[in-house]
Design brief:
This protein has about 230 residues and is α+β, with helices and mostly antiparallel strands. About 50% of the residues lie in helices and about 15% in strands.
Length: about 230
């Protein structure tokens, strides 16, 4: 039962299956099942397609056989195959068969769980709409408020209308030729509800990541570089 659930869940993008443990075997079974099902559907539909088309064009096929013999019939079969391959449903099945191969290979060789592309695209759309909703909820973007605080261990206070991605204790912030580190993050008042308290970074500390801060960078809607 767990293997079945894992096989079905492996179609989902990673954020939608965090609570489900998926083994490489389950992912491989899922990819193999997708491949086998699509190949079976392709072959079955081809026989149905050719049967119906030959019944519809039986008089034409008879005339082709009379005029060109077996070679002409084989040639018409090639055109029939080409017509079948450009059918919309055939193209869809071919794609998912190829996707099954990719997911199977990824699970068996790189031990990676690859989701199905349509659900991954749906996730991207959902994330985009979610970010747009958050952007509207946070209001208009305005320049950060930066204040130097002399009577506190934290000598720099930055209030922003947006959260700072990646600003944590491991991040080094460069501002006006001085290096700082994040001491604390607090909730502030609108329109700048995100407050960061920075202190000067000691010389002996290792710099793991540095961000050249500009109070006007928040006006840019693109993600900030870390």
């Amino acid at each position: 039962m767990h293997l079945l659930i894992g096989s079905l869940a492996s179609f989902l993008p990673q954020p939608w299956r965090r609570a489900i443990s998926i083994s490489e075997l389950a992912s491989a079974i899922s990819g193999a099942a997708e491949l086998v099902f699509c190949l079976g559907a392709l072959i079955y539909r081809y026989f149905i397609f050719t049967h119906l088309r030959m019944l519809a064009d039986v008089n034409v096929m008879v005339k082709v056989a009379e005029r060109g013999g077996e070679t002409a019939v084989m040639g018409s079969g090639l055109f029939l195959l080409m017509e079948y391959l450009i059918q919309p449903l055939t193209i869809v099945l071919c794609y998912f068969a190829l996707e099954g191969v990719v997911r199977l290979v990824a699970a068996t060789i790189t031990e990676e769980v690859v989701p199905t592309l349509p659900l991954y695209l749906l996730l991207l759309l959902h994330q985009k709409l979610h970010r747009a909703g958050q952007e509207r909820a946070l209001g208009e973007r305005i320049v950060d408020e930066v204040r130097f605080v002399e009577s506190s261990p934290c000598c720099l206070r930055i209030a922003s209308c947006r959260p700072k991605e990646g600003w944590n204790r491991l991040m080094t912030i460069s501002y006006q030729d001085q290096l700082y580190e994040v001491a604390a993050a607090q909730e502030g008042n609108l329109p700048r509800p995100f407050v960061y308290l920075l202190r000067k970074k000691p010389d002996h500390k290792v710099i793991r990541g540095i961000h050249c801060y500009d109070p006007e960078e928040v006006l840019d809607a693109r993600p900030q570089p870390n």
